[in-house]
Amino acid sequence: MNQKPVLRFGLPKGSLQEATIEKMAKAGFNVSVSSRSYIPYVDDEEMEIRLIRAQEISRYVEHGYLDCGITGHDWIIENGSKVHEVGEFLFSKVSRRPARWVLCVPENSPVKSVKDLEGKRIATEVVNLTKKYLKKHGVKAEVEFSWGATEVKAHELVDAIVEVTETGSSLRANKLRIVDELLSSTPRLVANVDAWKNKWKRQKIETLSMLLKGALEAETKVGLKMNIAAANVAKLLQSLPALRNPTVSSLSQSGWVAVETIIDEHVVRELIPALKAAGAEGIIEYPLNKVVY
Amino acid sequence: MNQKPVLRFGLPKGSLQEATIEKMAKAGFNVSVSSRSYIPYVDDEEMEIRLIRAQEISRYVEHGYLDCGITGHDWIIENGSKVHEVGEFLFSKVSRRPARWVLCVPENSPVKSVKDLEGKRIATEVVNLTKKYLKKHGVKAEVEFSWGATEVKAHELVDAIVEVTETGSSLRANKLRIVDELLSSTPRLVANVDAWKNKWKRQKIETLSMLLKGALEAETKVGLKMNIAAANVAKLLQSLPALRNPTVSSLSQSGWVAVETIIDEHVVRELIPALKAAGAEGIIEYPLNKVVY
Amino acid sequence: MNQKPVLRFGLPKGSLQEATIEKMAKAGFNVSVSSRSYIPYVDDEEMEIRLIRAQEISRYVEHGYLDCGITGHDWIIENGSKVHEVGEFLFSKVSRRPARWVLCVPENSPVKSVKDLEGKRIATEVVNLTKKYLKKHGVKAEVEFSWGATEVKAHELVDAIVEVTETGSSLRANKLRIVDELLSSTPRLVANVDAWKNKWKRQKIETLSMLLKGALEAETKVGLKMNIAAANVAKLLQSLPALRNPTVSSLSQSGWVAVETIIDEHVVRELIPALKAAGAEGIIEYPLNKVVY
Amino acid sequence: MNQKPVLRFGLPKGSLQEATIEKMAKAGFNVSVSSRSYIPYVDDEEMEIRLIRAQEISRYVEHGYLDCGITGHDWIIENGSKVHEVGEFLFSKVSRRPARWVLCVPENSPVKSVKDLEGKRIATEVVNLTKKYLKKHGVKAEVEFSWGATEVKAHELVDAIVEVTETGSSLRANKLRIVDELLSSTPRLVANVDAWKNKWKRQKIETLSMLLKGALEAETKVGLKMNIAAANVAKLLQSLPALRNPTVSSLSQSGWVAVETIIDEHVVRELIPALKAAGAEGIIEYPLNKVVY
Amino acid sequence: MNQKPVLRFGLPKGSLQEATIEKMAKAGFNVSVSSRSYIPYVDDEEMEIRLIRAQEISRYVEHGYLDCGITGHDWIIENGSKVHEVGEFLFSKVSRRPARWVLCVPENSPVKSVKDLEGKRIATEVVNLTKKYLKKHGVKAEVEFSWGATEVKAHELVDAIVEVTETGSSLRANKLRIVDELLSSTPRLVANVDAWKNKWKRQKIETLSMLLKGALEAETKVGLKMNIAAANVAKLLQSLPALRNPTVSSLSQSGWVAVETIIDEHVVRELIPALKAAGAEGIIEYPLNKVVY
Amino acid sequence: MNQKPVLRFGLPKGSLQEATIEKMAKAGFNVSVSSRSYIPYVDDEEMEIRLIRAQEISRYVEHGYLDCGITGHDWIIENGSKVHEVGEFLFSKVSRRPARWVLCVPENSPVKSVKDLEGKRIATEVVNLTKKYLKKHGVKAEVEFSWGATEVKAHELVDAIVEVTETGSSLRANKLRIVDELLSSTPRLVANVDAWKNKWKRQKIETLSMLLKGALEAETKVGLKMNIAAANVAKLLQSLPALRNPTVSSLSQSGWVAVETIIDEHVVRELIPALKAAGAEGIIEYPLNKVVY
Predict the structure, then answer these.
(1) Do A172 and C43 touch (CB under 8 A)?
(2) Which residue has the higher pLDDT, C250 or E39?
(3) Above pLDDT 70, what percent of chain E?
(4) Sequence-distant contacts of B143-152: CB under 8 A, at least 24 apart
(5) Which residues does chain A have within 8 Å of residue F14's beta carbon, measured at their own beta carbons?
(6) D222 has a chain E CB within 8 A of its CB
(7) pLDDT of residue D1
């Protein structure tokens, strides 16, 4: 008897959970979590979802309990997990920057570089990463695992911390100064090495990757459409290279055309005044669910 | 003196309330509920909204206190209400399946079919429906009304329950086994029989039904747009019948066209890899508010 | 040394905060508020955001602590602030009506007009506005500042109140009667007089205004697209002037075209039945992020 | 082999749950509810707790699934359950009044007595109780089960309601008038008839009842202690009969004694001024956990 | 016809509401607030409660809409209300200190005294109090009403603020420095001047005051009881004057007595080690509901 | 210049935080936590509080950043911290049992003893404790740190877990079986070794310990008082040794005495029926704040 193949897929539990489930929905996979069961429902009979802390996903993908999973580059490195990296996802919508693990000290600390930490004590959630970094710089310091609220510790309990930041605003609020950056990290889709060799699983993972990337890409893109006199189109396109390969359609009003394209959302705020200046009218921007090149 | 006609419309209060108000907004009717008043505001002077428990709506439509309302097929049957059914709505987004009232017993119960319930006790919220079902099967059993938490009762307090489920995951979490299905139920728009005979009210209800259906339909559909070499269009459309009657527009890049269509969201995840394989580029998916055929 | 110019922009803190940040995001400016810092992050290095109570924004714009800000017309008048008004925004989505400051009394009060308030006591959050109004009508009455829950006071503590309302439903719930309207108010973007004279700041504010207006406009508009036999297009457009200047594209099915336009969302519910009647098929409505004419 | 006997005890789930568990703790039984299990923990190996809706407890006690339970007199009557009533508990702390099921109509309804309801429709949660009441008064009316928000229905959906009230303030807020009282109800401890015949169970239930009563009694009592000149004690006790059988102890200051007693909390506010007037000093009031006469 | 007299009593709405209702309950008056009615229930037919912002209570007591009310000394002064002050209550439990309105500037501000504020701008909720203070010091400065979040304004929007503080920790967290103290404020029970002349109302207010004071007093006191050899009592009492006028009772164990007294809770932590040193055993501390001297 | 000495005291942050602060208040130290500052306020100028995760407190006490702290015996062992143990506190009120770290497997696992884990993988928060335990039993297994939700992992991701439990109900809900117990743990007050040698600090810590113990002791004790005929006292005391060394006072009613004592709360439920049987009347139980022997 032939059992139906299933892909076991790990999603990050906790603070990223809701956002990830929303992105999965945009990718076309509706996941619903019940408080009564630790196995979420997904409307795809070929897939099984597990919600696991981001810190642990790469470990369980490596061991083969999961075929693939989404986790940060940082935790793959921290765990030293041997996994196949399928794809890297776009940065957060807010800052469009990756997460950064940085070495920090209080603003008024005498520590100016990693060298000044010789014989000191450092608190962090990423103990292995920090030890490797210190070794690389030939510095001997005590590294201790921090169970949370690491930023507060820098002022009293330890000499420095290694903490994650995106915009740096939480560090500033805690009056901390960045001494160095250890690692820049983005979310990754990783696969178990054996699963990746299995044809059915690999194809399923690749499709999943394409759809997720399409959904994430769509979060940073918008559709832009405008009317313009046909006579001005050539000039418009020439002067605004951001309008890559647009659709041009005729309008019912003769001599006018509609121009439509997909564009990075964050350039729209500079583009719209320029479009107006170039003679565009009735400019509309609309949201996208997926963008697959 | 001629008073302005008004349509009295019942919406389900409670767990479905927020979702229904959101769908009404998509249909074009903005409803806002104040904690200080039991009559919600709606931006249509020809309509009055009442929020009533889904279990009771069909009863008040039948009595004529409401001209129409949205409720489940299950409660129309349970109440035995004589109402005109105007429309049936699409299934839930998560599972795309209707709600099902099922006869359940603990996993390890000796009960294998309804016949084994002779002389037993059953707890349920749908007492009439359950009694009718037992009668049809010639089984005599005690049916008692359950005020809630019915699933827990199956293990200790009664011999079986009749409970509603969508994906079955809550039943599995409670270690219950489905013995039989009594009824499959979807949301309906129902009208009072006399209101349906009134020309103004009927037209208003039909428009409402069309817009609501359009909004619900739109939740399961998406817009899909892609660029493709004009030479490949015919093959693309032939091999992918899901792309029904698409719009084809010329692109500024000669020899290429844009193809656009509306499609079931849940097929997108299979379709996109196929489209890529067929030569499509720059595939985008965008959300819809309404789809009216 | 040349410092980079920065625009200091005040957004209303409190009940409107979340909605304003959402609109800013639609305008293309991603703002994130941290509980640890009173300065929100915005992904534009040329801008600094401050969250300040709507009641106070015009005052700090006048003083020059802010270059510009969003606040209501009511508070600009109440504060008597000398600021440059850059733009007025559209009304709320729910009622499409401006906020109104109204003079109210209990339903059964003998007060029929402002004249009946001679020698009485009035509670309000807008003390200056109310005093000016009384003076205009030659009425002498005591006006006292109300710290909140003003509606309740009308029944016991004072003779009348001046309170803000949008749909009037909260007044009705409190059994209050509107005697007169003092002011109708919409949100405004206001600039400091000197900032407006600075070329860089003025251009930045005008772009901001255009994008915000575009985002707000988009909340009340939708895109509408439909298929129709080419033969019927002329008649359709003639009979439905709401379909201003639509895009007309050919469909793959010969003899049919796609018609697309932007339209006020609240007319859609009347328009769709008419479009169906005129032979339109496959009507879809889709959401917009920005509309800039 | 002899199994240890266990008492199965039903506590009301839902709105009364937290208060009941707090009273159980005061009675000496610490119960903790886990979101992961439907069987609460209790620190008594001879007891098993079940949380069941108050409306259903008497039914499951009657059937023998529970040995005893706490529920309202109203639901015992509504269900017509044959159970042994072990004890009645004191009224709520707020109003010191029992719950009352009352027949209500809108303030301006023409209905003045139950007789005026002939041929009308009544909504209620207690259908049996209402039918019995109508029969007793020889009135024929339709009684329909209300799933909630019954008070709102009286104004539009039915002609009258039968609803529960304690202070009447919610009825007044809904502009309802009480026409008649059907039943006054207090919480009861009820036992299964067979369990009551079992010596071990009966003794366990009686102890439970004594401790619960002691805990509830203590909620309405306080300890009162004061110093007074020995010469004034006799007069004090004579003039204040509320000070039943007090403890009198000597103070270190000669000629003075301490008087201590237990007293109804709600008379303290009248008593203290009187005590002061009678020469008492250093009056203290302290809380009690249990009072068992 | 003789109507029953009623005392209209104002309690502070908002942040202090819950605490005040709890204290009222300890004083013997059970108040319950319904979300459906603005008039709270109280179990005393001679009293009517109104919940009003603390800032406004003295004004409505002065006008006679309330017979009495609880509010802060600060708001009585700010409003300049002519009311009779019946009693002052004890300080908050946390810090045992009154609230203080203080003039603050950023830590690094050049402002060292009120004199340095000449020509500057100050934000505060207590505009009148601040103006009076400036006048007293002969300083001319602009004072503007702050609608909230005043602490944040000190850094950017104004030159100084006048804000309320208890422990100063929020000021320190905002990096503000106290320049001067304007007013120290405790809660007061105030009466309308005419109500105070009415014999029935005055007696009712005085009883209320006595009971409330008793309840508040009890929050800072505890009962203390211990066993000690009779031979050591005299020495114990002599060396520990805090043990004022204790009750001394004989124990069943001969030669030992029990000593009991009421004491300030915050001295217990120093007292207990001393009592142990003096030979006391079995020391217990118990809570009190009321203490009336 | 002589600086005032201060004791730096660590309290567990997180799930135990609120309970610990409540116990501190009972001990006589009022602590208040501000969301704006990481240093809580305490009403003792000789003390500074730090809130730190229970897992880390012993480490910072060992390093001397804290003079003392409250943490579990488990984390002291897991961290291998060299600290002076000042006192052990009573068990939780609910179960009166210590926390236990137990080795668990799924109910249907073949693992019967630790020996069966050779070559397997174990997830736990206490990696060091688990490794030491395995070494003691001569078992080689992989131990991996679990970031949370450890119970769920036992079914799929690892072969066994080491998890903490109090009543075992969460383990049962997760269908896990306890194989062995590694450690039983209670909360401890620990001091830094040097701080303990400092006379002032040691005395401060000892007082703190006495007061905290007194407060915790009081949570499991109650005061019990009853009236009884003087003739029956001797018999009562003889037959009920739980009534240790009670106070006996005369009542105003001749021939009767009041008997009062302190007793374990959890024996009250057995004691009260016995007291009634022995002739006691008017039995009252009252709560305690502190009990110091």
Answers:
(1) no
(2) E39
(3) 95
(4) B144/D59, B146/D56, B147/D53, B147/D55, B147/D56, B148/D14, B148/D53, B149/D13, B149/D38, B149/D52, B149/D53, B150/B123, B150/B124, B150/B125, B151/B104, B151/B176, B152/D38
(5) 148
(6) yes
(7) 45
* A287 contacts on B by Cβ (under 8 Å): 286-287
Residues 4-33 of B with CB under 8 A from C: 27-30, 32
pLDDT averaged over every residue in chain A: 89
The position carrying tokens 């807008």 is C126
Q: Is the pLDDT of residue F91 over 70?
A: no
Tens-digit pLDDT profile for residues E199-241? 999 999 999 999 999 988 888 889 999 989 989 988 888 877 7
Determine whether the interchain pair C41/A284 forms a contact, defined as Cβ–Cβ distance below 8 Å: no
For C141-153, what is each residue's pLDDT tens digit?
Answer: 999 999 888 988 8
From the number of C-beta atoms within 10 Å of its C-beta (0-12, 13-18, 19+), residue E112 rates as exposed
Identify which of A142-151, D251-260, E13-22, F36-45 has the greatest average pLDDT: A142-151
pLDDT at site C1: 45
ipTM of the modeled complex? 0.82
Q: Decide: C and D in contact? Rule: 3+ Cβ pairs under 8 Å.
A: no
Apex F126 CA angle, F92 and A20, nearest 5: 95
Tens digits of residue pLDDT in B185-210: 999 999 999 999 999 999 999 999 99
Task: Locate the DSSP E strands across F171-235.
Answer: 176-185, 187-191, 221-229
> Is D50 in Cβ contact with B13 (below 8 Å)?
no
Instruction: Judge: A59–F149 Cβ closer than 8 Å, yes or no.
Output: no
Q: Give the Cα separation of F279 and F234 in Å (integer).
A: 12
Weakly modelled stretches of chain B, pLDDT under 50: 1
In the predicted model, is pLDDT for residue D77 greater than 70? yes
Q: Which of B170, B268, B273 sits opposite A36 (nearest CB)?
A: B170
**What pairs with residue B285 in β-bridges?**
A290, B224
d(CA B239, CA B257): 18
Give yes or no for B202 touching D (CB within 8 A).
no
User: CB-based contact (8 Å) between B289 and chain C?
Assistant: yes
Residue D158 zone, left/alpha/beta (φ > 0; ψ -120 to 50; rest): beta
Question: Quick check: E116 pLDDT over 80?
Answer: yes
CB contact under 8 A, F38 and A152: yes
Q: What is the three-class DSSP state of C158?
A: coil
Q: Which chains touch C (3 or more CB pairs under 8 A)?
A: A, B, E
Helix, strand, coil percent values for chain F (each to nearest 5): 35, 35, 35
Q: Which amino acid is at D117?
A: L
Q: Are B292 and B214 in contact (CB under 8 A)?
A: yes
* E28–D250 CB contact, under 8 Å: no
Beta-carbon contacts of residue C172 (< 8 Å; ≥ 6 apart): B37
Q: How far is D246 from chain E (nearest CA, A)?
A: 15
Residue C46 touches partner A, C-beta closer than 8 Å: no
Interchain contact, D272 vs E41, CB within 8 Å:
no
Distance CA A26, CA B285 (A): 10
> Cα B267 to the chain's mean position, in Å?
20
Residue F282 near chain D (CB below 8 Å): yes
Distance from CA of B270 to the nearest CA of C (A): 23
Per-residue pLDDT for F1 more than 50? no
C-alpha angle D64-D66-D70 in degrees, rounded to nearest 5: 125
